[in-house]
Every structure is written in structure tokens, then in C-alpha cells.
Amino acid sequence: MAISFGISTLPTDNDDEAFLDNLVEQGHTAFELAFTRGFPWKEARCSSFGALAAERGLGLSVHAPYFAILTIEEPDRYQKTRAAVEHTMKLAAKLRASIVVVHPGHDRDRTSEQLFTTAVEALDSIAGKIRDLGVVLGLETTGTANAFGNLGDIALLAAEFPWVRPVVDWAHVHATTDGRLVDLESVRSVYSFLFDQFPAWKLQPLHTHYSHNSFGPGGEIKHVPYGEGSNPVEPVVEAAAEFDVDLTIVSESRDDNSHQAVWADVGAAFASSEQLEPNARPLGSGAVDFPSPLAIVNEAGSYRATRLRHPLRVTNPDKPFFPDGYTKGDLIQYYASIAPVLLPHLEDRAIVMARFPDGAEGEFFYEKQAPSHKPDWMPVAPIHSEVRGGAIEFCTAPDRPSLMWFANMGCIEIHPWLSRIHSVERPDFAIFDLDPADGARWDQVVDTALHIKVALDNLGLRGYPKTSGATGLHIYVPLDPVHDYGRVRRFVETVGRLMAAADPTNVTMEWDIPRRAGKVFIDHNQNVGGKTIASVYAVRPRPGAPVSTPLAWEEVGVLTPDLFTIETIWKRLEAVGDRFAPVLSGGQTLDGAEAALGLDSPT
After folding, report:
1. Which of 151, 262, 547, 567 has the maximum number of C-beta atoms within 10 A of its C-beta?
2. Nearest 10 degrees: Cα torsion 582, 380, 329, 295
3. Shared-domain flag, residues 25 and 157
4. Cα–Cα nearest to 534, from 438, 420, 433, 458
């Protein structure tokens, strides 16, 4: 568990360095810019402020204007409200902020179904303009009964849009539950509801607001100085530790003394939750400075991982797993630390295990069927197999402990299906797998990728490249899950053959391996149901423990796969975030591209 604490306000003068230095001196690690009344800053100041905050290790968020809500339907107003959400997201990107907080809206005597439909229309209207910004949209829980935006409402919207997250305002939840958030048990129930309604990755970190409430004799609610209300902050931190939730707490108190008092109690509760058990030791070897390092305790010949939501046993953590000294414990810790970024790309996907029991240089094998000793808490995905004549129960990766279990099984790589469990015959993306054959150079891979980029642009499709983690590149074309595998494979093959015809010296589609020598092979047959490819952010079994890493198109040809390893990926993520997040949004079909390529669309 990790915790960040900050306040929500705006600097009162233009001395941003002094303002940020003061926050750091007070122990704050987060700050929320309160653009609640409008847009007082231009892009230039946002960029400057964001750079200064990054230098000081301060994580930023932005509260959108109060009028930037999702449920306005009057034609003369809804364009303004949606534009306000979009503009806040663009300013947040300049600030390098991770999340924009928005109030979902009011009911105006409409039903929940009507409000939900209006909110979906609002988010659909701005999706294409914000999905590549690297900022998520946080919907804040309502504080009144006559407003849209309880956790159930937010969960429905988050299920529709990968870039939507919940923001829990603890004072609002306290108010809407008639003042019931008074102890650990009541706060636990909120976390339980969150994990029931949202995938674990949308709760890492969980962005929250906090202030004290009081209730008048007539049931009226008001914010009061910290210490005068009835909703303590300690259970919020204690329950987060129990649920293995990384937490951001933004104090919305009205005075500095309250901010400091909240921070003191948060810090004390966090310190208590972080106390190591007797005989605990680090999971990793110490060779890498991983974020959110975990501890293990030796018990009867194996190790128990501490402070996880699910029980997990770790075996042989000190076993060398890579030729340059990284251990099995380092691999497990890597997947524990990368979980918030990787899990969105594995949600609802069957996993094929590529197991390396003796490390990267040992023998390996693929395993599809979930072993009988898998944890009881790990859900499986039964998928019918024609070959077997029945269902294969694949393992899945819904949360951090599941990723750690895969690594403990010797899975250096994570291999997810291209389609999700509920649309198993229809992939969510097309993949161009650029595999340099013996004698091919990296610049040939780069040129091939850039030529495919031109083709995709002309076909009206977005593509996103990532290093394979070895010697090649993968280009993902996000799709709505409406085409079967055969149709997707035909599209990739058609574009691939055009590339080979245009540049036969460097590109090949030959299946005869000797005839590929010195060229880049475009493998369209990766787009087959049941075939898998190493996931984004998967480790590869090679010296240095390289990681499959997303690139911006302008970085293709500038950055090489060897730059990204389990040691170096963290600075990359801190600088640019998850460049593969837009792949999750789909939003494309092959219909127009097929017509342009002269391919018949199946009826």
C-alpha cells in the first residue's frame, strides 16, 4: 500500500516555486488544482507548474469547474458543459496531472436510466478528443440524494469507458449514508462495494476527498473544521491497508490547521499499517528500486506475502532467474509494482502461462489449463476447445495477487488472449507482429513500422506501437469487438502483403524461414483465436529482463527495445504514463478500411 496526501486550492500569487516548496515542506505529496469556478490558467502556466511539481515529486490532479457536468441536456447548455470537461482534461495533460475530478450531475426530475443515457452521450461526444491525453476522468460521489453520481451510477459509466474512475468523497458518502461512516467496519463496507463494482485496476490508486461533516438538529449537513465532525479519517487508511489499495487523500478542509491535523492522523494510521511483521524481509533482491515494495515472511519452508488482499505463498524468491542476477523475487515484485498499469490490459482475458521454472535460460513450456493448485480466489475463464472437445479453464489476472501468482509459477511472460471472455470470438485489436529474421537490422523494423503507420493513416485507423521486448515491434489497432478473428487476420494479411510488395527488399510474408533471411517478417497469423502474444509491460526471458514497452510514433526509430527493463521502466512511466491506454478504448471498425482495400465485407 502507498499513500499520498495533499490539499485542494490555487496559488494566490504567481510564485509557483515558493508555493510548491511550501507544500513539500509540510509533507504533502499530492496537490489538486481547484479550477472549480472556471479556467484562470492558460496552457503555458499549466505546463510550467506541472514541470515544477514533477521536479518536487508532487502528484497533481485537477478539479473541473462545477458547471462541467455530464447530465445537462438543454441544447443551449450541454455543449458548454461538455467542452468544459474536455478543456479541463487538456489543461490537466499540460500539467502532467493523473486525474480530472468531475461532478456527474443532477437529476432534474429524470429517471436514473435517462440520466445514465445523457451521461453516456456526453462522454461519447468527447472520447475521441481526450482518450490519447494520458489523463483519466474521475467521477466524484454525490453528497445529496437528489443528484446523479452514487457509486453504483459511477460504476455503470466506468464499465462503458476505460478512462473513467471513481472519486470517493468521504464527506459526501458520510452524508448520503446518514452519518454512518464512524468506524472501521462501516468504511470497510464502502471498500467492499468498490471491489464488487469496479475492477481492481480502477481502484489503484483510489483518488479520494476528505473533510469533516456535522449534522444539525434538522438533519442539515455542513463542513466543519477537522475534529468537530463525526467521520474519522483513520478507518479510511486502515481499511485501505486491509484491501491493499494505494490511496490519494485530498483534504478539502477550509483552514490550514485542519489540513495539518488531517495529515497528522493520516500519517499515524499509515505508519501503523506499514509496520512489518516480525521476521519479515523484502520480496525483491534489492537490485532494483521498485515502487511499492512488498515484504514476505518465512513460514514452514515457503514464504507468505504480507499486506495483500488475497493470501499468497511465494517459493524460492532468491533463485537466480536472469543471467545478470535478477531473482525470482525480483520478477514477482516487478509484477506487483507494475500491476496498476498492466491490469487494465488483462481485464477479462484468458491467460496462457509461459512457464520458465528454472529462469530465463532454462527450458520452458506453455500451459493453458488452470492447474488444480491455483488459488481459490482466482477466477477462471472456461473457453471451448475444438481440439479437446470440451472447455479449457484458463487462469485470469484480475488483481495484483494474481499477477504475483503467475510470476511465482515461473511465468516470466504474460500471454493474454486478443479477445475478452465475453466476446471470445471477436478480438479487441488487430496486431501487426514485426519479427526481424536472421540478418535483419533494427532500422528495417523501424521503416516497416512507419510504412504501416502511413497505411493505417490513409485507411482512417489509429495504431499504437510497442517494443516486443526482444528484437521486434508490435502495432496494435484497437477495434470494437464486432469482427471475428478471420476477418481481422485477413485485414492484417492484406496490409502486410501491400508492404511486402512495396518494399520486397526489406519486408516478407514468406512462411519458409530460410527465405525470410535479412528481412522483416509480418506475422498476420498472430490474429487467431487462442493464439497469444506477450502482453504490453510483460517481461521477456532475455538478459537484462527487458519489458515490452509502448512507444509514441515519434519515438519509433529513436528509442530501442533494450532501453526498457524491470529497472528502467519506472522512470519511463513517471515521465509519459501508459501510452497504450488508448488501445483499451476501441472505437474503430474495419468496414471503411476494407472498402478502401477492395475487400468484401462479410454479410
Report:
1. 547
2. 90
3. yes
4. 433
Spatial separation of the C-alpha atoms in residues 357 and 455, rounded to whole Å = 42
- Residues found in the chain: 603
SS3 62: strand
Residue-wise over 543-582: b if at least 16 C-beta within 10 A, else e?
ebbbbbbbbeeeebeeeebbebbbbbbbebbeeebbbbbb
Q: Among 158, 115, 161, 121, which residue's Cα sits nearest to residue 140?
A: 158
Contact 235, 383 (CB under 8 A): no
Tell me the residue range of the domain where 379 lies: 280-416
Instruction: Provide the CATH number for the domain around residue 298.
Output: 3.90.920.10
Residue 603 confidence (pLDDT): 58
Cα 418 to Cα 300, 415, 468, 484, 485: the distances in Å are 40, 9, 15, 11, 9
CATH number of the structural domain spanning residue 114: 3.20.20.150
448 and 401 in a single domain? The answer is no
Query: Is 422 domain-assigned?
Result: no
Please indicate, yes or no, if residue 237 is contained in any of the structural domains.
yes
Question: Quick check: 241 and 273 in contact, CB under 8 A?
Answer: yes
Cell of 430: 488487430
Q: Is 76 found in the same domain as 61?
A: yes
Does residue 194 share a domain with residue 127? yes
Are 315 and 449 in the same domain? no
The CA distance from 337 to 547, in Å, is 13
Using DSSP bridges, classify how beta strands 473-478 and 429-436 pair: parallel, antiparallel or unpaired.
antiparallel
From 355, 388, 416, the end of a domain falls on 416
Cell readout for 126 is 468527447
Q: Which contacts (CB < 8 Å, 24+ apart) does range 47-50 have?
A: 47/94, 47/95, 48/16, 49/16, 49/20, 49/95, 50/94, 50/95, 50/96, 50/97
SS (H, E, C) 94-151: HHCCCEEEECCEECCCCCHHHHHHHHHHHHHHHHHHHCCCCCEEEEECCCCCCEECCH
Query: How many other CB atoms are there within 10 angstroms of residue 11's CB atom?
Result: 17
pLDDT at site 601 = 74
**Residue 482 included in any domain:** yes
Q: Tell me the torsion sign for CA atoms 391, 351, 589, 450.
A: negative
Q: What is the pTM of this model?
A: 0.92
Kindly state whether residues 105 and 199 are assigned to the same domain. yes
Indicate the DSSP class of residue 565. B
Q: How many domains does the chain have?
A: 3
- Residue 215's H or E segment, with its range, is strand 212-215
Q: How high is the pLDDT of residue 218?
A: 57
- In DSSP notation, 220-285 reads -EEEE-TTSSS--SHHHHHHHHHTT--EEEEE--SSHHHHHHHHHHHHHHHHHHTPPPTTEEESS-
Task: Quote the pLDDT of residue 28.
Answer: 95
Q: Which residues of the chain have pLDDT under 50?
A: none
95 and 178, same domain (yes or no) = yes
Evaluate whether residue 602 is within a structural domain.
no
Q: At what angle do helices 184-197 and 234-242 cross, to 10 degrees?
A: 50
- Of 519, 516, 534, 554, the closest CA to residue 476 belongs to 534
Find the distance separating the first CA and the last CA of the chain, reported in whole Å: 51
Residue pair 426/482 in contact by the 8 Å Cβ criterion: yes
